[in-house]
Amino acid sequence: QVQLVESGGGLVQPGGSLRLSCAASGGVSSIKTGAWYRQAPGKQRELVAQIISGGITNYADSVKGRFTISRDNTKNTVYLQMNSLKPEDTADYYCNAALVLIGSPYSYSYWGQGTQVTVSS
Hints:
Layout: E1 3-7, E2 10-12, E3 18-25, E4 28-39, E5 46-51, E6 57-59, E7 67-72, E8 77-82, E9 91-101, E10 107-111, E11 115-119
Parallel strand pairs: 2-11
Antiparallel strand pairs: 1-3, 3-8, 4-5, 4-9, 5-6, 7-8, 9-10, 9-11
């Protein structure tokens, strides 16, 4: 079955860095678009970063200059490099990707299982 498996979350001190990975598997030809969302307890899910057609990236104002989304098509993986982390970055992070499946001309949206990021001293 098609899966998006997230990894890389954990506990980090303020000012530290963390890289999240979102690996697609299960007959996936390529990742068309990718995005990272986050949701803190009691808050709405927020779009953090996205990478779309042509490699264009967009970021929430709160993470601009600190986070970088990228895509490795050879590994069918989307990454989120997080630098200069702040306590307010603490949340569950979810990967979303439009995946092109082998033998299909279309893309389909999938969600990762989520990974927790805690920024605290």
